[in-house]
Amino acid sequence: QVQLVESGGGLVQPGGSLRLSCAASGSAFSFNSMGWYRQAPGKQRELVASITRGGSTNYADSVKGRFSISRDGDVNTVYLQMNGLTAEDTAVYYCNAQILLATWNQYWGQGTRVTVSS
């Protein structure tokens, strides 16, 4: 049973920084892709950033230049460094992992809340 456990959310002032971590367990294989999505109140869940096994990254336009995603493939852990946070970044952040076995399999964490407020 694959489990994704996020940590690092919390309350931060505008302009501040947070680092999210997501540790995956239960998989004997390295995930093809890991990433972060977020869902703000009243909005749809959206991709924030993703990173492939090979290290290729993809960012939402709204976070480019402020957020940085990285992963430790040996232990299936992904990180999201968030700098220059604004109120618009307030959301629940979900870890996502995808792996191709016989078919594509996708897994989600339970989410960690990030609140940017003064």
Tell me about this structure:
The protein is mostly beta strands and 118 residues long. It has no helices and 11 strands.
Q: Count all strands and give the number.
A: 11
- Helical region count? 0
- DSSP strand content: over 45%
Dominant shape: globular
What is the averaged pLDDT score?
A: 94
Oligomerization category of the chains in this entry: single chain
**Biggest sheet layout:** 7 strands, mixed
Q: If you compute it from the alpha carbons, what radius of gyration comes out, rounded to the nearest whole angstrom?
A: 14 Å
The helix/strand series, from N terminus to C terminus, equals: EEEEEEEEEEE
Our measurement of the CA-to-CA distance between the termini, rounded to an integer number of angstroms, reads 40 Å
Low-confidence stretches: none
Question: Which range best describes the helical content: under 10%, 10-25%, 25-40%, 40-55%, 55-70% or over 70%?
Answer: under 10%
